[in-house]
Amino acid sequence: MIIRSAEPADFPRLQAIETAAGEIFRTVGMAAIADDAPPTPAELDRFRRSGHAWVAEDAGTVVAYLVAEPVDGALHVEQVTVHPDAARRGVGQALLAYAADCARDQGLTGLTLTTFTDVPWNAPYYERLGFRRLTEAEVTPGLRAIRAAEAEHGLDRWPRVCMRREP
């Protein structure tokens, strides 16, 4: 497996990965998440231009991606998605480790993310990878703004949490 910076030519594949991975949310009663549109090329390009968009390739095929941005001194993982055909092979874990290395190299204090609390491949998965749930007092202003935007998008129909991992 190779992890490399995303390129504009990857964007259609990243959208297809997001759509395919979203389908599993139907199995836990979250069809609205499955039906949500993948990130637009412009959204993906914003992360790419900032140097915070990476893909994982396996045998020449992009199978996963991660996009992030600095928020309040940490690297906030906006999205990490693995195609279902490549699931359970450590691809997401490898992308998160790569992002943690990049965060450390940039002098950032750790990784943060927001996720669903009760979805097995969300908060419980991240906890197994060393993330911890933040208390309300630990949620930074930038994370509060992200959570507000998520709530406006309708994601608070299901319980969500902010999480952090040290680099």
Q: What descriptors fit this protein?
A:
167 residues, alpha+beta, Aminopeptidase, 6 helices, 7 strands, globular
Note the topology:
Elements (H helix, E strand, L loop, with lengths): L1 E4 L5 H12 L8 H5 L5 H9 L3 E6 L2 E11 L2 E9 L8 H15 L5 E6 L6 H6 L3 E2 L7 H12 L7 E6 L2
Parallel strand pairs: 4-5
Antiparallel strand pairs: 1-2, 2-3, 3-4, 5-7, 6-7
Structure, explained:
The chain is built from six helices and seven strands; from the N terminus they run βαααβββαβαβαβ. It has 167 residues and is α+β, with helices and mostly antiparallel strands. It is globular and about 45 Å long. A seven-stranded mixed beta sheet has the order 1-2-3-4-5-7-6. It has a single domain (2-165), classed as Gcn5-related N-acetyltransferase (GNAT) (Aminopeptidase), CATH 3.40.630. It starts with a strand and ends with a strand. Helices cover 35% and strands 26% of the residues. β3 (61-71) and β4 form a beta hairpin.
Number of E strands: 7
Distance between the termini: 22 Å
Which CATH class? Alpha Beta
Helix content: 25-40%
What is the CATH-assigned architecture?
3-Layer(aba) Sandwich
Name the poorly predicted regions: none
Superfamily at the CATH H level? Gcn5-related N-acetyltransferase (GNAT)
Structurally, how many domains make up the residues?
1
Average pLDDT reading: 96
Spatially, the strands of the biggest sheet line up as 1-2-3-4-5-7-6
What class would the helix/strand composition place it in?
alpha+beta
Can you count the helices? 6
Measured by DSSP, the beta-strand proportion falls in: 25-35%
Q: What overall geometry do the principal axes of the alpha carbons give?
A: globular
H and E order: EHHHEEEHEHEHE
What does the radius of gyration come to? 15 Å
Using the coordinates shown, work out and report the CATH topology. Aminopeptidase
The largest sheet is: 7 strands, mixed
